[in-house]
Amino acid sequence: MAAVSRDDASWTTVVDAADPRLTDYRDLTDVELRRRREPEEGLFLAEGAGVVARALLAGFRPRSLLLLRDRLDRADVRLAADAVTALEAPVYVAGADVLVALTGYDVHRGVLAAFERKPLPVVEDVLLGARRVVVFEDMVDHTNLGAAFRSAAALGVDAVLVTSRCADPLYRRSVRVSMGTVFSVPWTRLTSWPGDLALLSAVGFFTAALALADDAITLDELAGQRHERLALVLGTEGSGLRTSTLASTDVRVRIPMSGGVDSLNVAAAAAVACYATRV
Questions:
Q1: How many separate domains does the chain show?
Q2: Range of the domain at 95
Q3: CB of 15 within 8 A of CB of 95?
Q4: What region does 132 belong to: left with phi over 0, alpha with psi -120 to 50, or beta?
Q5: pLDDT tens track for 139-195
Q6: Which CATH number is 39's domain given?
Q7: Taking the model in full, what pTM does it have?
Q8: For residue 45, which of 73, 166, 29, 135 has the smallest C-alpha distance?
Q9: Residue 85 and residue 137 in one domain
């Protein structure tokens, strides 16, 4: 057993990266391992005091909190630790050498927390009362997904839907890039795409696919139609939306470009489209 000492009455100082109590934080740079392991074990990680605070505010239950000793003088770090302690979850403190050996990288923000996932809601519940929805088809880049969630939250999107092959919105990088806004936007995962578009149509959503299609209207034209319930559908970073998806949506939409640029990064395109069609 690793040597420990008490800190701030209830926090535990850990001096060994092999300590079994820190298993949730091990090998964070092994993306494939973490992508499989975290959903299977029902956990996700939040990085940074502000993101941890957002997760707590959203009602996620912490499994533990891991702090870099050099950050203990920060007020936001101590507030996060106090909040986790109040929920009777352990708080561990370690030096930089232990954190690097454990996680595989320099945890320069000094705060990591493991949380329990909540069961994903059914699609119908997520759509209830929503007027603006964004659907991400097979977006595999965690950074883009996190940025897109942040835009959705900032620009009044009521819900986000992701397809079965889409990246995990609760993967650490997605959570970090979203600044924790992934906790505030209702979302769930679709299971039968693009057949699930019928669920949107059934409850009155007009579906618009962002694509460089020959029959595409401009984003300005779509915004001018002022649909009561609108779902924007965006595809993966490389090949875009599937042909079957394009055929199943109500309209294809393009963002007019200039300067010899044909398209935007998918996260940027999502931001532009969400802003243009906001209620």
A1: 2
A2: 4-116
A3: yes
A4: beta
A5: 999 999 999 999 999 999 999 999 999 999 999 999 999 999 999 999 999 999 999
A6: 3.30.1330.30
A7: 0.91
A8: 29
A9: no
